[in-house]
Specification:
single chain, 9 helices, flat
């Protein structure tokens, strides 16, 4: 196994270590930091598995199901936390007419924390060992030249998908955001492939940041809508406030998406 292949394995092991470091912390007290680091590690691992599948044809999704489930559960906590954080950042307080909205968000956040903790306690680490064995085994016959060629080809295909959906960003923003992440995660291991596509790494990071802000507002908007439709009494004072907040959030999303779309067309070769 050559040096470049070892680098792939090393990158995988680094993310596994972050996963295993934060898993017991979540089982004790799920917090913003350990949930965030845990989920980023899973995103990296999933990206590496996509690379593996694209290059080797090795299937992995069935064995990854247990990890996918805990990722989904912790994602619920993360979304409620984002909603609360977004309100705070925008200076929106309970006493401003949003008392019931805050109570709704905090209640659901509390429930999500409990589910995250239980999912971490129930997780069988053997599932990660199984996926790791699949990942490591898939590279045994690969050499550095073959890997680099495959990764550069894969990176080019990702960029092609981004380019294809760039003209309809309103419909495909979430998909484009995921593709950009895939590009960035690939570039972390194989930075020499990205320049061949004509795309600048810093520009991709800036695009991802803008789409990330859009995603945060989307999470908040979904939370607001869920509250308004299921719990908010029509014609009440709070309904009026929540409806206005919903409109402001949607307008902000439109501005962020427009800005990202303009930037995306500027950086695409």
């Amino acid at each position: 196994m050559e040096v470049k292949t070892m680098h792939i394995i090393k990158a995988w092991e680094e993310q596994c270590n972050i996963f295993l470091l934060n898993l017991p912390l979540i089982g004790q007290a799920p917090g913003n930091e350990n949930i965030h680091d845990f989920r980023v590690a899973v995103k990296h691992m999933r990206s590496y598995l996509n690379i593996m599948e694209a290059l080797t044809g090795q299937n992995w999704r069935e064995k990854f199901e247990g990890i996918r489930q805990i990722f989904s559960i912790t994602g619920e906590q993360r979304e409620w936390e984002i909603s609360l954080s977004m309100l705070s950042k925008r200076g929106i307080k309970e006493q401003d007419g949003y008392k019931e909205l805050y109570q709704f968000l905090e209640r659901n956040f509390g429930h999500a924390v409990f589910r995250s903790r239980q999912a971490a306690l129930d997780f069988d680490a053997a599932q990660l060992q199984t996926v790791t064995s699949i990942f490591k085994g898939s590279w045994e016959t690969w050499n550095e030249k073959k890997i680099r060629k495959g990764i550069c080809r894969y990176t080019g295909k990702l960029l092609g998908k981004v380019r294809k959906q760039a003209n309809d960003l309103d419909q495909h923003a979430h998909r484009v955001r995921k593709l950009v992440k895939e590009l960035l995660y690939s570039a972390e291991i194989f930075p020499d492939c990205l320049p061949e596509t004509g795309v600048n790494l810093l520009a991709l990071e800036q695009l991802q940041e803008g789409l990330g802000r859009w995603q945060d507002h989307k999470v908040l908007l979904n939370s607001i809508r869920t509250f308004r439709k299921a719990y908010c009494v029509k014609k009440s004072t709070e309904y009026h406030y929540v409806k206005m907040l919903e409109k402001k959030t949607k307008r902000k999303m439109e501005k962020l998406l427009s800005s990202s779309g303009t930037f995306l067309h500027q950086i695409l070769p």
